[in-house]
């Protein structure tokens, strides 16, 4: 907690650029009823979601297997152009799927730093394919390893669980990574993913996260609209407070 408090102080003291980010809530659709995925996506957007978070797992980078670009293409055709698709690529060869995901209708391609030996070339390929660039790090990867690429990406994803499995406990000790990123790159979109819900949103927001992935806490709720509104409100208030503290 002391380290988190110090990082929060650094966030306020060392922000060097204007704040250009906003609160965005993205339900993780892997937590939905996959037998009616299209209608579940529609339901989440109608409940106020800002974007949809799609987890792609290949059975190699992580043990589980989910879906690939054919499913994304079907969802895009069904849902139209409005929903923003944030592809979380938990795959061992992220270079392989860039063009296919772009053609399928993905808006942002978020790959894992641990999965590639040439992040710069991959970032360039993603941009040339017309998508935004997200860069993710697992809990065991230091934020300093992401630093050389932070100025070249649109979003940094700090995993707050080990990737590949749902229902894990939120790892609060990942928040200093978020704080450091916010202090060094104040206008960067920073996403947290894993175990995030009403019980953990305050520490995420205070640390500086503005893009919130939430699975079962939103989709499994009896009132997803209220949960999304609450998450957004907490993050928006933290952004406003940070702006005033500057």
Automatic annotation (TrEMBL):
Q: Tell me the domain of life.
A: Eukaryota
Protein EC: 5.1.3.1
Q: What GO MF terms are annotated? A: D-ribulose-phosphate 3-epimerase activity; metal ion binding
* Residue positions of the active site: 55, 193
- What top-level class of enzyme does the UniProt entry assign? isomerase
Instruction: Paste the cofactor note.
Output: Binds 1 divalent metal cation per subunit.
Matching Pfam families: Ribul_P_3_epim
Report the cofactors: Fe(2+); Zn(2+); Mn(2+); Co(2+)
Q: Quick one: signal sequence residues?
A: none
Record keywords, A-Z = Carbohydrate metabolism, Cobalt, Iron, Isomerase, Manganese, Metal-binding, Zinc
GO terms in the biological process aspect are: carbohydrate metabolic process; pentose-phosphate shunt
Family affiliation: Belongs to the ribulose-phosphate 3-epimerase family.
Q: How does it assemble?
A: Homodimer.
Please report the name of this protein according to its UniProt entry. Ribulose-phosphate 3-epimerase
Q: Which organism is it from?
A: Neogobius melanostomus
Q: What is the lineage of its organism?
A: Eukaryota, Metazoa, Chordata, Craniata, Vertebrata
């Amino acid at each position: 907690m002391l380290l988190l408090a110090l990082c929060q102080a650094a966030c306020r003291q060392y922000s060097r650029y204007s704040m250009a980010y906003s609160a965005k809530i993205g339900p993780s659709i892997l937590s939905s009823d996959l037998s009616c995925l299209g209608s579940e996506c529609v339901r989440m957007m109608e409940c106020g979601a800002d974007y949809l978070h799609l987890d792609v797992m290949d059975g190699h980078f992580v043990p589980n297997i989910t879906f690939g670009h054919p499913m994304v293409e079907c969802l895009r055709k069904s849902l139209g152009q409005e929903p923003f698709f944030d592809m979380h690529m938990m795959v061992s060869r992220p270079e392989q799927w860039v063009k296919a995901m772009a053609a399928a209708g993905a808006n942002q391609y978020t790959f894992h730093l641990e999965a590639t030996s040439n992040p710069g070339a991959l970032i360039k390929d993603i941009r040339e394919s017309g998508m935004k660039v997200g860069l993710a790090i697992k809990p065991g990867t230091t934020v300093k390893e992401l630093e050389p690429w932070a100025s070249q990406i649109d979003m940094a994803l700090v995993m707050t669980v080990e990737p590949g499995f749902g229902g894990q406990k939120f790892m609060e000790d990942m928040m200093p990574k978020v704080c450091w990123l916010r202090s060094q790159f104040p206008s960067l979109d920073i996403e947290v993913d894993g175990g995030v819900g009403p019980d953990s949103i305050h520490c995420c927001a205070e640390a500086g996260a503005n893009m919130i992935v939430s699975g079962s806490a939103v989709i499994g709720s009896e009132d997803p609209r209220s949960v999304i509104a609450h998450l957004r409100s907490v993050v928006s208030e933290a952004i406003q407070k940070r702006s005033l503290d500057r």
